[in-house]
Amino acid sequence: MGGDNAPQVVVEGIEKARNEWSDIEFVLYGDETKIKKYLKDDKNITIVHTDEEVLGTDEPVKAIRTKKNSSMVRAAKSVKDGENDAMFSLGNTGALLAAGIFIIGRIKQVDRPALMPTLPVTNSPLGVNMLDVGANAEAKASYLQQWAVMGSIYAQDVKSIKEPRIGLLNNGSEEDKGDTLHKEAYELLSNTEEINFIGNVESNDILAGVADVIVTDGFTGNAALKATEGTATILLKELKKALMDNGFFTKMGAAIIAPSLKGIKAMFDTSRAGGAVLLGLKSPVVKAHGAANVETIFYTVKQIYDMLLNDTINKANTYFEKMQKEQ
Amino acid sequence: MGGDNAPQVVVEGIEKARNEWSDIEFVLYGDETKIKKYLKDDKNITIVHTDEEVLGTDEPVKAIRTKKNSSMVRAAKSVKDGENDAMFSLGNTGALLAAGIFIIGRIKQVDRPALMPTLPVTNSPLGVNMLDVGANAEAKASYLQQWAVMGSIYAQDVKSIKEPRIGLLNNGSEEDKGDTLHKEAYELLSNTEEINFIGNVESNDILAGVADVIVTDGFTGNAALKATEGTATILLKELKKALMDNGFFTKMGAAIIAPSLKGIKAMFDTSRAGGAVLLGLKSPVVKAHGAANVETIFYTVKQIYDMLLNDTINKANTYFEKMQKEQ
């Protein structure tokens, strides 16, 4: 059980979710003493004590191979063995990816799992899902097609969008834009009947809500995601500094406008969307932000619950099996 | 002479620059009647009338081949023929790139010219130069090395930075990060003695001023630049909306804090840096933003003047010739 504020926020979030959905059973992997310290009531909650820890600085694959009694490896094994249906973690993203691939395993016809967070958009509380944002530094056009299909099924099941608009992140909006990879991906996505492909999307439009799902290779997706996060963080920090460092009257003005600024803060808050899904694995695996709060934990459980209720992973599985037979 | 507010802002910016630097001679290519309408004094300014226009919607290479009497083609030819030393345009970026490559020509040892804008940073008025941000959808590691050398020389000459810090945009800060292209680029940059290579830079740190020059392939650079611009634009728009749409008291608060917000606006204003340079061509070629104002035009002239005074292009040329001889 990793994360900056674990286990307190995790335990509180889990208890909140347990109180909401009585048919979920939780198994918490981590330091039993620490978890018990925050646990008010163990109804539907089991603790499995683990005494090893995958650190943020660990080399992912090595950590998964050597730290057999870490919460991450134990949780992944339990999913592999069918003891649990899904897992989430606030810990090392690379290690979670490695645990997903090497312990839980990929959906057979999916070449590579993708990391898919939800980003805020200005015109809808549902946000936009972007994948892959960094699980794969190298990509092929066929991966992007697989991710588009899985992203589309996810948006239908978890966000209840009937025909999710799927966009391809590219360096221009015209259909002939891109390098070889993205031109090929455009072609493949255009010919994928099961998705509502709306064409190319440029990264200045990500937050404008022009698509429900944006497909991209992990290298570009990582750059676009981090540039978006970095710019928002720096701009809001500079704004705060400007309001606090300019004397009494500015502070007074800042106090007056504070309630209105909450709307912007709320727009950029995607905690209700849950965590970033590692799509393409045999079971739902979700990475919640290391700095996640109680709300995010609660909504991450809801997100996984929605995937399980809708059989989201199996739908993707069925699609790819059907594709394979037709080929 | 293209651009949203041309020729008025261009003519005004040129006159301002002419009044500042008496040893520059300007040749304006465009509609003579329209230019004359705004020109107060033609000292050191010649007008060459052109009656064709490269539009924003034109296919770049085709436009350059067919619109022989456009301001862009005429200006590029004049540089090629040595009548003028440099050119800048507010028009179609792709067409300017095509004119640069096919009319003015590349520095012999530079494989591809790169588009290099200046982005703001929080800790210096000099900003950060990023290249390539979209002239090349496909790149090789050797291109990134060439761009790093040229970016470094530019930062020394035009921004007076003694040992410019050169960073490589990558998907992590550790040296083993990246796809094959960026791992190769890391290796090449590490072994380039003439530059001060500081290692990998992630795109959430672009505006934090961790480097003076950031090298990237055109596809990723385009995504990072547009994500940065898009996020800043959307955030500032939402902020304005929040301050204006929430009644009298919020508006009053907004009026009080307005002077303090100017500091942020000033931070994000890079007009003093001039335009985006097409580095790698035989002469300085600069793309100023279509929506450039008089200040940007003035500083674009200064930027070109600095490159000419310092012989920036020839320094790059000399470096690459020396490299070739040593191989």
TrEMBL record, chains A, B:
<dbReference type="Pfam" id="PF02504">
    <property type="entry name" value="FA_synthesis"/>
</dbReference>
<keyword id="KW-1208">Phospholipid metabolism</keyword>
<dbReference type="GO" id="GO:0043811">
    <property type="term" value="F:phosphate:acyl-[acyl carrier protein] acyltransferase activity"/>
</dbReference>
<keyword id="KW-0443">Lipid metabolism</keyword>
<dbReference type="GO" id="GO:0006633">
    <property type="term" value="P:fatty acid biosynthetic process"/>
</dbReference>
<keyword id="KW-0444">Lipid biosynthesis</keyword>
<keyword id="KW-0808">Transferase</keyword>
<keyword id="KW-0012">Acyltransferase</keyword>
<dbReference type="InterPro" id="IPR012281">
    <property type="entry name" value="Phospholipid_synth_PlsX-like"/>
</dbReference>
<comment type="pathway">
    <text>Lipid metabolism; phospholipid metabolism.</text>
</comment>
<comment type="subunit">
    <text>Homodimer. Probably interacts with PlsY.</text>
</comment>
<comment type="similarity">
    <text>Belongs to the PlsX family.</text>
</comment>
<keyword id="KW-0594">Phospholipid biosynthesis</keyword>
<dbReference type="GO" id="GO:0008654">
    <property type="term" value="P:phospholipid biosynthetic process"/>
</dbReference>
<dbReference type="GO" id="GO:0005737">
    <property type="term" value="C:cytoplasm"/>
</dbReference>
<keyword id="KW-0963">Cytoplasm</keyword>
<dbReference type="InterPro" id="IPR003664">
    <property type="entry name" value="FA_synthesis"/>
</dbReference>
<protein>
    <recommendedName>
        <fullName>Phosphate acyltransferase</fullName>
        <ecNumber>2.3.1.274</ecNumber>
    </recommendedName>
</protein>
<comment type="function">
    <text>Catalyzes the reversible formation of acyl-phosphate (acyl-PO(4)) from acyl-[acyl-carrier-protein] (acyl-ACP). This enzyme utilizes acyl-ACP as fatty acyl donor, but not acyl-CoA.</text>
</comment>
